[in-house]
Amino acid sequence: MRTLALRRSPPSLEATVALAVGAWLVAWFAEAPLSEWLAFSVLGLERGSHLGDAVAFFLLDVPKVLLLLLGIITVVTLIRGFFPPERVRAALAGRGTVAGSIAAAAFGIVTPFCSCSAVPLFIGFVEAGIPLGVTFAFLISSPMVNEVALVLLWGLFGPGIALVYMAAGLTVAIIGGLVIGRLGLERYVEDYVWALQGTGGAAIEIKLTWADRIRDAWAYTRDLVRRITPYLLVGIGIGAFIHGYAPTELVAAIGGRANPLAVPIVILIALPLYSNAAGTIPIVQALLGKGMPLGTTLAFMMAITAISLPEFIILRRVIRWQLIAVFATVVTIGVLLIGYLFNALIP
Questions:
Q1: Biggest alpha carbon distance in the chain?
Q2: What gap in Å lies between CA 78 and CA 109, rounded to an integer?
Q3: Cα(55)–Cα(50) distance, rounded to whole angstroms?
Q4: Which of 171, 195, 286, 343 could form an SS bridge with 242, CB 3.0 to 4.6 Å?
Q5: Are the CB atoms for 265 and 254 separated by under 8 Å?
Q6: 3-state SS class at 88
Q7: CA distances in angstroms from 220 to 44, 74, 107, 145, 274, listed in the order given
Q8: pTM of the full predicted structure?
């Protein structure tokens, strides 16, 4: 008598998604009590001590941030899949400076890039005939206001601070693009870049099924988490140290409301640092917890992500130092104004 082996069919896409969502929700609600248990029961640290508070902060934030990235960024990436770079360039190419700068800043939120991709993006925009000011509106907005930072801010602090951050970043990007566009700085773009204008081929549109989009979004999210996890761990480690050890009086002396130079000081501190927006969130969380005003904290975060020395060095391949200096100056002034404005408006 011959036994027939039953072959199991793979789970459906709907079942896989439902299982993933359920696992994410269980992990989200379990991570806080688990981190407390690990810090104070397993490791035996004392509540209220410097070391105990620092370790508890680290153990709480690492899974929380990673869960936010894995879960919500997958959804955001699905939406972003409808805005590929080719479509963004095509949408911006036919607009004027004002409308183009506004649109470019908005597209920058859903089309993030790292410093290493600044050059190909710049060249691609020039190829499409997009004005220089519109291009810089995108280059400012994309690293400063991206979906990773928005998701983390929303998850850690709520929608209010996340929307304030988005509005501030968009304002700097739009005004920066308009200013650079009006200054007539095209002569500081390298000649070989202008020679490429109009040489780009027609974009090929590929039709994707929902299954393809979900797989692509998950693959992108996994790669993103893998690439930025070192920055996150460093950022969370710094945030944990500030949370546990930095005296509140020191934070207040450097970045508090009583110091009129707090905003430029934190920008100067941020200049040599390099991190993406996600890596700065835990530091922002710790600084706010120590009483640093929101405007000063936002200025610090924006300076790290938008006034990036590594990005300037990479951009030197396509633009000259004069244009980089104008770019850095315009963004720095914008970040200064944002810092002082929000310190004045939000107690």
A1: 89
A2: 14
A3: 9
A4: 286
A5: yes
A6: helix
A7: 39, 8, 18, 19, 22
A8: 0.62
